[in-house]
Amino acid sequence: MRSIDPKKLSIAELQQILVGSIAPRPIALVSTIDAKGIANLAPYSFFNVFSSNPPLLIFSSNRRGNDNTTKDTLCNVSLNSEVVINVVTVDIVRQATLASINYPSDVSEFEKAGFTTLESDIVKPFRVKESPVQFECKVRMVYHLGSGPGAGNLILCDIKKIHLAESIFNEKNQIEPDKIRLIGRLGRAFYTQTGGDSLFRIVQPVGQIGIGFDNLPDQIKYSHILSGNDLAALASVEEIKTLSDPDERVIRIVKDNHLKKAEKIKQIHQLAKEALSNGNIAKAWDILLSGNYI
Ligand SMILES: Cc1cc2nc3c(=O)[nH]c(=O)nc-3n(C[C@H](O)[C@H](O)[C@H](O)COP(=O)(O)O)c2cc1C
Prior knowledge:
By secondary structure, the chain is α+β, with helices and mostly antiparallel strands. It has 2 domains: 6-198, Electron Transport, Fmn-binding Protein, Chain A (Pnp Oxidase, Chain A, Roll); 213-290, no CATH class. Helices cover 27% and strands 22% of the residues. 28% of the residues are buried. Flavin mononucleotide binds at residues 27, 40, 42-46, 60-62, 71-73, 97, 100, 102, 185.
């Protein structure tokens, strides 16, 4: 384990540790406008949603690491307190990175990166037509976090209007990850896309009080086969139910006189693991309880 005092690292080294370990980060494609009405666009991955009531997004426009200058986005929001935050998807990620180039202030990244401007309803900055979700925001506050290179400027944005493309919804009117295909940024030049094989579900109903690791029987808790994730799934149930349906495969393992006890436990835990990988927690418990009398 490396234990580091952040003050002992250069800003560049520290930045790589931060962005390499706090990831993936969503990307905001931030649209602002300057005093002359020139549209500005830039991607920001120090970005997230922080409140639903009031609806609020935040992002940070950092001072440049090389020359400690500030960015056009910060200048524009300080001027007129308006932004449109557009989400970045698989289809537009390369264009979004092109918009990160430090073009002169009087050049619009909309044009350079090939994005189409859409008039907003409430604020002056344009929406990005190619992005499927666009948030019109008023800037509530800019909080300067420091004055040296790399210092963040936290920008709190109150959402005033949300525009959503029909294409991202499923038939139940929910935003479908496989349809919206959002992008995440990691360290260095790495990105990740959501959708397909990268998606999985964890159902942990709010209000369901799981038994927790401490109530797992020791033989399960200290298994060499079941992982922390497997144990967490087992520990998510409200009670350990009594065995209702003994598993035939486990009975065979238990009755097999050629197998040593440790091997029997291993095989039973492997079967339970398989059930868990299929999302079947009840079956996993049946398997484990069927082996109870080893
Ligand atoms: C995917 C991506 C994410 C970025 N995230 C940030 C960020 O969170 N904060 C930041 O200050 N710069 C970030 N940058 C760099 C800015 O986009 C870049 O400095 C840009 O030129 C700023 O434009 P502006 O001067 O028009 O605001 C990011 C760049 C990329 C490609």
